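Page header: ASSEMBLY MODEL / two components / 685 residues total.
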Amino acid sequence: MTEIALHERLMKYAPLLLIPVLVLLGFLAIQSTSSWLTLTVSGLAMGMMIFIMASGLTLVFGLMDVINFGHGAFVSVGAFVGVTILLALGGMTGAPSLALNLLAILVAVIGAMAATAAAGWAFERVIVRPVYGAHLKQILVTMGGLIIAEQLILVIWGPDEIFFSRPEALKGAVTFAGAALEKYRLVAVGVGLAVFLAIRWVLRSTKIGLIVRAGVQNGEMVQALGYRLRLVFVAVFVAGSALAGLGGVMWALYQEVITAHMGQEMMVLVFIVVIIGGLGSIEGCFIGALLVGLTQNYVAFLEPKLALVSNIGLLVLILLWRPQGMLPVVKAK
Amino acid sequence: MLTKLISGDNPRSPVLTVILLAILIGLAFAPFLFPGVRSLETAARICIFIVLVASYDLMLGYGGIVSFAHTMFFGMGAYGVALACAHMERGFLPLVVGTSAGAVVAIVVAFFIGLFSLRVRAIFFAMITLAVASAVAVLVSQLSGLTGGEDGLNFLIPRELTPAFTLADGDLFGVRLNGKLLNYYLVFLGSLGLFLLLLRIVNSPFGRVLQAVRENDFRAEAIGYRVVYYRTAATCISATVASLAGSLFAIWLRYVGPDTTLSFEIMIDILLMVVIGGMGTMYGAVVGATLFVVAQNYLQELMGVAAKALSGLPVLPLFLDPDRWLLWLGLLFVLSVYFFPSGIVGRLRQRR
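Prediction written out in full:
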């Protein structure tokens, strides 16, 4: 057996190490512990939400080589459905009882995820199915799907943006080590982490996860072994849409305002995350999302005007370092 | 002579010939045929969008490259003119300086994007251009000191191109001969020239190679064409023409803002125009852009009337609301990708 040099072993984990390095750099640049802590938490919260939206997209791409430019539509639909339910349950969200608040949020999240799962199923059947294997058509048709979905939202909910406020229990902040940490952001970090661990568990420890991972690596082989990859794919597509819907609700609660264009706007961040993570890789997607969230929040504090452009800088740097993304699974042709 | 002018690319369909001639005549004599400020605005918009869409078609239809950064180049030309006019003395010089500066920036940026990311697959390129374009749009609205931010820039163009300037006393067929007319013909002739240039390019050996690359880049590479060079060249040409169209747009509007030049909505509009008109046929750009701009300006009224007529029914009026016209074009877009991928022009050519 040949001895692997230390730096080679480290290189394998280099993407993972990027996050602590970035956090440390942020600390050095900001110099105030309390603002650094606040920014780190909100960066992590933002990253977790982006991860939830992006996870489905990257798996779908890995499995069937389908890129869905309409993925943002699910984010919008999830947000609108969830917020509508929350507004309808105004009595429960307005009450200062934690249990009632959580129940209302749970109902809203389940409603939104059910709606986006159904939308994802319809989207796969009607829009995506006829265009397997044709990238150009995929891009065009899913863009068309995004346009139609956005217009349908405008038809149903009207053209105005909807403002609302978070349930009582999630308002306000807790103070920790002199830093004010918004409660909702802590919750978002927790939910994101839970979703990530759940996806990892499903992918690593269940039969379905095994098939999905094998399918991402080599779809033809999996089919040759007798598994119906198409069914798996539809399931992943639907699950990914539902996750995008969850991400939409969480993002709506974060911003406390929703517009029909929000999905379109989130798409840019989601794509950046998927690209720098490496297409098809769920871990890469997670690291990428956290990097994007943290970078954006740090830069927004240090140099507000460059906040949104900083993501592009990050994208360029990562692609110069690893042109296929950090942890590529699918070989880019 | 005429065949030479359109580079031997005949419409190849009687119906299409009639449509194209009608559009050409309509645009050439728009100020006289359709008097009124609004219809002249529409005509100028059509001219400019024909060029913009045709330049996009060079990439999408002929090169098979999906880019979402086309409005970025359009905006570069427009902001070039706006900034030059805002900072230089009034006259024709700032127009020339701004136009060329915008074109140079566009070509350099296109070159770098092309070299940087055209080696990878179509999907990657589409996502990267989307990200870059949105970053530029954000940057433009953030740097309000230079670009006027969300409000955009109003600027002065040479007096000869404004309605205040009188070309000759009296009127011709009831149209006042003022600078506005001159400005329209600048836009029209500029657009016509750029369009014929694009037609020349796609019918040249270069255009043929591009089509070969689109059909099978692996084989094209095997025959000895450097695929990346051709794709990068197509991106650069396309970006330059888009920036020139942007300059014309800025001169016509005398205003530049993120919403009119850089927004993602315009990118979607361009995509719709190319696909509905017909990818890979320059004439598709003409038909698509005309149809779209006319629909944008007049379909809404029609839908308003229809919505009113059906106002008694439960849900239907919501779908016919004038603001929902994009819904119908989106549906048309998806259907055309499925059922007639070569668009209106391709369809007409089939049915010879």
